[in-house]
Please model this.
Amino acid sequence: MKVIKLKTRPNTYSGNTYLVLGSWNALNDVNTVIDSGIDDFLISQIELVNTGVGKKKVDKVFLTHTHFDHAGGVDALKRAYTPIVYAGTSSLGIDKLLKDNEIFIMGDKYFEAIKTPGHSSDSFCFYCKEERVLFSGDTNLQINSGGGVYEPEFLESLQKLAKLKISVIYPGHGDSITASTEEMIKKTIRIVKESLKQK
Model:
């Protein structure tokens, strides 16, 4: 599996956009975009990538949630590549609704869609057990201090993710996280629990 973090338009606020490919660009690999950013800028970035001969550059698009900074570029992707678009809620441009624990192929690996409400009601993370990789969207897994206000469903989402073996986290904003990921999630759970006790 190859994960490519695509560049977003300079000087604009956008969520991260990832292109997931198979290791060898085989014909049966499922070229996948996770989150589309805000506009059509990602098309120019995808066109620079070797995504395999004789196949679509983008077969499927998975949205971690439908906030504009993560889903604004869906229409451009559909015009360019006619992919199937998956999300946790129905809206313009969405072809199929995600289900909790549903399994998909992204690139050449199996991923599980995990419903993680908290940041939004339609939030999903995508987890590859074989590679220990998690695409977390805006589900905040790194909270370092108390004082925040959280809903109980956010804690439930964190507890689901804490059961996973995770080596790499690709978040919705910022750089990938590769160090002490599981300990980081456990620390976040402790802080969120304390906050909920004080409500």
Notes: The longest helix spans residues 181-197. The radius of gyration is 17 Å.
